[in-house]
Design brief:
With 150 residues, the protein is mostly helical. The chain is 80% helix and 0% strand.
Length: 150
């Protein structure tokens, strides 16, 4: 493969990802970010999976089957994703209040397995600006998620 072929494949793959992101539903993009948050510590615990289903049902008004199907789709997307930008671009188009809810939901997933790691904190710290959420808003979302647990 020549350098030109390699570059052409790279740009074509990038265009395909952008096309897929344009057609992605906000629930799927949010679910993918939740899967990434769950995987940040290297373990996708059953508690995290069940929490994602609950959050999708509540936040996106999905029934049980639709929430589980959305989670399954998100898992597949995350397994093939090069980065999380294709997901954050979709969520960033949501109104601020909904983006803040997604951030709170990300924290709820991270906290659902009773372990909070540096990797999880780091991921959510990186996602904040990509979702146009300030550090303060991210911290407040974490506090709301912690309060909901108790």
């Amino acid at each position: 493969m020549t350098m030109f072929d390699a570059l052409q494949r790279l740009f074509t793959a990038s265009e395909d990802r952008e096309s897929a992101a344009r057609g992605m539903k906000p629930a799927t993009a949010a679910a993918a970010l939740m899967v990434e948050a769950a995987l940040a510590d290297g373990v996708f615990a059953r508690e995290e999976s069940e929490q994602i289903v609950r959050l999708l049902r509540r936040g996106f008004d999905l029934d049980e089957d639709a929430a589980r199907a959305t989670l399954q789709t998100a898992e597949g997307l995350v397994s093939r994703a090069v980065d999380h930008h294709q997901f954050t671009r979709v969520v960033k188009d949501l109104p601020k209040e909904e983006r803040l809810q997604v951030m709170e939901d990300l924290w709820a997933v991270v906290l659902s397995d009773e372990e909070r790691t540096h990797e999880e904190d780091s991921l959510l710290r990186r996602l904040g600006p990509l979702l146009a959420i300030t550090d303060r808003e991210r911290a407040e979302a974490r506090q709301r998620a912690e309060a909901r647990r108790h």
